[in-house]
Amino acid sequence: MQRNDEEDHVCISIGRKLDGLFPSSTGCFIFKVHDQLRNVNEKAYEPDIISIGPYHHGKNNLKMMEEHKLRYLQYRLRKKKESLQRYVVAMRELEGKVRRCYAEPLNLNEDELIEMMLLDGFFIVELVRKFRMSNLRQGDDPIFEVEWIVNSLQHDLLLFENQLPFFVLCKLFDMIEVQDNHKRTCRIWDELKFEKIGGNSFDIKFRNGVMQIPTLTIEDRTESFFRNLIAYEEYHQSTYFHFIVDYVKFMDCLIDSPKDVEILCRSGIIDNWLGDDEAVSNMFNKLNDHVTGPGVHFHYAGVFNEYASADDYVPQVIDMEISS
Predict the structure, then answer these.
(1) Cα-flanking dihedrals φ and ψ of residue 30, to 5°?
(2) At what angle do helices 243-254 and 222-235 cross, to 10 degrees?
(3) Contacts of 30 (CB under 8 A, 6+ apart)
(4) How far is the C-alpha of 252 from the C-alpha of 246, rounded, in Å?
(5) What is the Cα–Cα distance from 124 to 172, expressed in whole angstroms?
(6) What pLDDT, on the 0 to 100 scale, is given for residue 179?
(7) Which of 13, 37, 105, 138 is 20 to 30 Å apart from 201, CA to CA?
């Protein structure tokens, strides 16, 4: 028997869900890591001591730093005799724009989000200023007195999910400053020579039969650092070049076993603070799990092609597909 739509509970239920949908936005750029990436190494995406932004906000293990956020704001307001309302008004004007930047629904009402924006944003801006200008630091500030806190903050502020929109930081900084005044798989080549060079990590060249690569330091936080930048590039589809994904893929081509890591360490290409060559090789071999790419514009295609075209250096490569 056909039921009237007005009495149909399914229609009513779906209608309520449709009414509750937020408008879709292509402007979202702060995402959560998808489960396939997270399940490979969940801890790599979790902050140690501080939450920035809404995704980790309110977690019990991160509450220690909430007091420090308040103290940074309090010290500033008292020292400069500023009005708190001035900053709240500025954040309230940005609240809607900030909310639209996050891909996931936020469990914070308007006032709660504004408070979080102000405390988190103010803390980051003041922290950066205190790093640059030591005269701004308070003598009893444990952040600069206890080394492990600084190390943990450096880790946490780089995390993919632990972010505020940059325009929030720019607004607060301006207010403070004014007031102050294609799939490719490959394996290592036989008899390839390496040379350590200066420059940024992505500046890899092949010249005169030698692969020239800047030094990469591997320490406890390196895997987390790479995973969060890879996650950013995975979601940021407008990026023309995926430098991190391409770099990790290139290094994975060179590293297949602990022996390969040993060779790169002897050449000065890798500075292994882990002290375990197998741990480094395992890290690079797993970093590409569930990661798309490299894409059509592979950053190191030219390096591969130069190597392949060198008369005296014919590559002994297993399962390698290279295209420019």
Answers:
(1) -120, 110
(2) 130
(3) 53, 101, 102, 103, 161, 163, 165
(4) 10
(5) 10
(6) 61
(7) 37
Residue with tokens 């490959």: 186
**pLDDT under 50 in the chain at which residues?**
1, 182-188, 311-324
Spatial CB neighbours of 257, under 8 Å, sequence gap ≥ 6? 281
Q: Which of 273, 296, 283 is nearest to 217 (CA)?
A: 273
In the block, tokens 């909430």 appear at: 66
* Contacts by 103-110, CB closer than 8 A, 24 or more apart: 103/28, 103/30, 103/31, 103/32, 104/31, 104/32, 104/55, 105/22, 106/54, 107/54, 108/54, 108/57
Between CA 22 and CA 140 the distance in angstroms is 46
Whole-number Å distance between alpha carbons of 126 and 129: 5
pTM to 2 decimal places: 0.61
Q: How many CA within 13 A on the CB side of residue 278?
A: 0
